[in-house]
Amino acid sequence: MKITVLGSGDAFGSGGRFSTCLHLAGNDGTVMLVDCGATSLLALQRAGIDRNSVSAILFTHFHADHIGGLPFFMLDALFNSRRTAPLTIAGPKRVQDWVKAVMEAAFPGSSGNAYPFAITYLEITPDQPGTVAGNGVTAFPMVHDQRAGPCQGYRIARDGKIFAYSGDTTWTEDLVPLAAGADVLLVECYTWDIPLKNHLDWMTLSRRLPDLTAKRIVLTHMGPQMLANRDKATVACAEDGLVIDP
User: Fold this and answer.
1) How many angstroms separate the CA atoms of 148 and 206, rounded?
2) Residues 33, 40 contacting (CB under 8 angstroms)
3) Which residues pair with 140 in a beta bridge?
4) Using CA atoms, how far apart are residues 188 and 167, in angstroms rounded to an integer?
């Protein structure tokens, strides 16, 4: 498994970063995206990634900085890349309804397009793990914004490795089992020392690092205050283009 952080930014592109988008490639070449934020099509093109190589997209929740790139990805598949391979779209409950709503908001009528490839929708919940593009996926409830949810983090198992990703969340005890023994934990950290009800801050996270037993921890989704203080963090901070090889 190889993880490329195509987008490590927050909703506002702080620091000139792309919206959240993770590229997971299995040893057999199978590719899955985790989240597809508003700028993801640009990030994919800038990285020189063949969009038709993506077998599945897995969403953590349905804010635009995590799903807003999907309408562009889908229309690109229809008109530019001329996709024919099947595509799986997975995520929390009602993922198909959310995708339709996002498509209609971006390009009215586009959810009814006749796509020349099969689209399969798959719900992954804490009670219902699943397999997405060959990846074993287990969901954990996160605390972010239920208006755009359910909001979930994932443990993703592939090639004998476990990658854990928080999605967006404030501190929740479910981060502990999410991280337990994972080869890598990618965890959001929006502010340095300002507690928020829907995002993590470094001071809170740093106090709980001993409880997060992942072998490696990397911060992402950093806002302006966290970016200004990231050199003080005692764990790694993601940048767009970071490659993580567990």
Assistant:
1) 27
2) yes
3) 153
4) 7
Give me the helix-helix angle, 70-79 and 95-106, nearest 10°. 70
- Structural domain boundaries of the chain? 2-244
Cα gap 99→193, rounded to integer Å:
35
The model carries a pTM of 0.97
Q: Does residue 153 contact residue 138 with C-beta atoms inside 8 Å? A: no
What pLDDT band is residue 49 in, cutting at 50, 70 and 90?
very high
Tell me the C-alpha distance between 187 and 106, whole Å: 29
Angle at 40 between CA 156 and CA 9, to 5 degrees: 80
Question: Position 140: which residue type?
Answer: F
Share of the chain above pLDDT 70, in %: 100
CATH class of 2-244: alpha beta
- Per-residue model confidence (pLDDT) at position 57: 98
Burial zone of 80 (CB within 10 Å; 0-12 exposed, 13-18 middle, 19+ buried): exposed
CB 89 within 8 A of CB 77: no
Q: Residue 121 corresponds to which amino acid?
A: Y
Q: Cα separation of 33 and 205, whole Å? A: 26
- Measured distance CA(35)–CA(125) in Å, rounded: 16
How wide is the angle at C-alpha 163 spanned by C-alphas 152 and 123, nearest 5°? Answer: 35
